[in-house]
């Protein structure tokens, strides 16, 4: 893809304001007490989608009216769960166009594979539905910008599933950093250090009869089905996912960027990585280090760095956390785990403060989304906020894949003098009703 950002995407919107206030978990049951519950749909109730279902069936602010799922067995199981929990039998559909055409559905939860995140979110926004979409917000950078356009043009709320943005403990830690307790933060680091399993090696085969594979593929260029695409394994394939950097890594990358205080794309991206451990069909690195540079980001106009480390074969934790963040300031350091603990250090590793709290608060994130539907405010993980964090995953994966330093223009969102890398900022689509299109 060539040309400038205007040619691709039109005028960009201004940065989203951070929505004030965070709702406690118990707020989800009282949010819309003054009105009838709004009807919502779950699109993709497997994996993280099942966690959303578990929250939504106890939430008096909503009625989970429709299940959209291409796997008949999963759809039936989800409908049964909803019926037992609420006493109401939901509508079950395979094709999301039935959800989009239903005027009673006011909001959707999208927890599909990554390759469907942007297409489904854009279609839903164009149909006037408010959107809660799982992370990473998009399969590629260009899609993310189109999501922002769709949300703004249609005046809908679009929340991304990085629930740490609504977690009181993380917000407290970010407030500490903003107060200058560790001085000016020059470097932030995020890591993903955990033990994953192999996906094995498989050959193309016939999809199981309960799966509508054609619908599952959506607008992407078709490839033959393999048994190690599903369930959840799609994330290790370039065609469908963003690797573990876009899966678990994006949570901690988002928190790192938040604490570092950078609100643009980086200008330079350097990366090394590959498969150091697994001998299987995975196409993304199991071992990866990426450095993002933000020139002129300090108060004195000097660079800041964000570093990402990934070792998904690791049997040990780093700095006490499987996934975590560190902030290196001129007067101290913070070590933070999104699971509910941070430690503040002053010069010479003097422990200043240690705080514990609850882990990622999914109920609060739902409550924030629903309240923004009612008030028209921007949500805590607004699409424009998450877009910048998800973009780091895309830039990092591209730099690792091509094996070169990327020189990025933050304004035009182009990669200078590297056509092969630039091409990976988007993707090819087949002729399909869900293929994303830019807004005029």
**What general form does the structure show?**
globular
CATH hierarchy: architecture of the domain at 5-165 and 362-382 = 3-Layer(aba) Sandwich
Question: Averaged pLDDT, please?
Answer: 92
Oligomer: single chain
Order of secondary-structure elements: HEHEHEHEHEHEHEHHHEEEEEEEHHEEH
Distance between the termini: 19 Å
Radius of gyration: 21 Å
Describe this structure in words.
The chain has a domain at 5-165 and 362-382: Rossmann fold. The protein is of the alpha/beta class. The two termini are 19 Å apart. Helix 5 (114-126) packs parallel to helix 6 (141-154). It has helices at 5-9, 48-56, 72-86, 97-100, 114-126, 141-154, 168-178, 213-217, 243-247, 249-260, 362-375, 383-402, 419-423, and strands spanning 38-43, 62-68, 91-93, 105-110, 130-133, 158-160, 185-193, 268-274, 287-294, 304-311, 323-329, 332-337, 341-345, 351-356, 406-409, 414-415. The longest helix has 20 residues, at 383-402. Residues 1-34 have low confidence and may be disordered.
């Amino acid at each position: 893809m060539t040309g400038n950002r205007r040619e691709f995407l039109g005028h960009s919107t201004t940065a989203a304001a951070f929505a004030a206030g965070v709702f406690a978990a118990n707020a989800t049951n009282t949010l819309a007490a003054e009105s009838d519950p709004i009807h919502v749909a779950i699109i993709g109730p497997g994996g993280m989608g099942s966690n959303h279902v578990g929250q939504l069936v106890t939430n008096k602010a909503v009625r989970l009216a429709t299940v959209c799922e291409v796997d008949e067995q999963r759809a039936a199981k989800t409908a049964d769960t909803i019926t037992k929990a609420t006493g109401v039998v939901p509508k079950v559909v395979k094709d999301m166009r039935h959800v989009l055409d239903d005027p009673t559905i006011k909001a959707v939860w999208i927890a599909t594979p990554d390759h469907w995140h942007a297409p489904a979110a854009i279609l839903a926004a164009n149909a006037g539905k408010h959107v809660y979409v799982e992370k990473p917000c998009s399969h590629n950078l260009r899609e993310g910008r189109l999501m922002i356009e769709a949300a703004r043009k249609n005046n809908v709320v679009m929340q991304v599933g990085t629930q740490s943005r609504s977690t009181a403990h993380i917000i407290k830690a970010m407030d500490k950093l903003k107060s200058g307790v560790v001085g000016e933060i020059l470097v932030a680091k995020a890591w993903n250090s955990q033990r994953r399993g192999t996906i094995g090696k498989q050959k193309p085969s016939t999809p199981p009869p309960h799966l509508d594979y054609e619908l599952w593929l959506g607008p992407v260029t078709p490839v033959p089905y393999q048994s190690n695409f599903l369930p959840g394994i799609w994330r290790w394939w370039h065609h469908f996912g963003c690797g573990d950097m876009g899966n678990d890594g994006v949570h901690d990358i988002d928190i790192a960027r938040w604490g570092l205080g950078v609100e643009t794309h980086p200008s330079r991206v350097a990366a090394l990585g590959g498969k150091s451990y697994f001998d299987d069909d995975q196409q993304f690195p199991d071992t990866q280090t990426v450095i993002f540079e933000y020139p002129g980001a300090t108060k004195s106009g000097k660079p800041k760095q964000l570093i990402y480390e990934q070792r998904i074969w690791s049997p040990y934790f780093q700095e006490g956390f499987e996934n975590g963040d560190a902030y290196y300031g001129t007067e101290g350091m913070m070590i933070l785990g999104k699971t509910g603990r941070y430690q503040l250090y002053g010069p010479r590793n003097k422990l200043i403060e240690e705080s514990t709290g609850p882990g990622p608060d999914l109920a609060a994130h739902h409550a924030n989304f629903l309240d923004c539907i009612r008030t028209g405010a921007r949500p805590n993980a607004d699409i424009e906020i998450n877009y910048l964090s998800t973009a780091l995953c895309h830039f990092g994966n591209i730099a690792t894949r091509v094996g070169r330093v990327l020189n990025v223009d933050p304004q035009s969102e182009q990669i200078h003098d590297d056509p092969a890398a630039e091409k990976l900022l988007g993707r090819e689509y087949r002729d399909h009703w869900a293929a994303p299109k830019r807004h005029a």
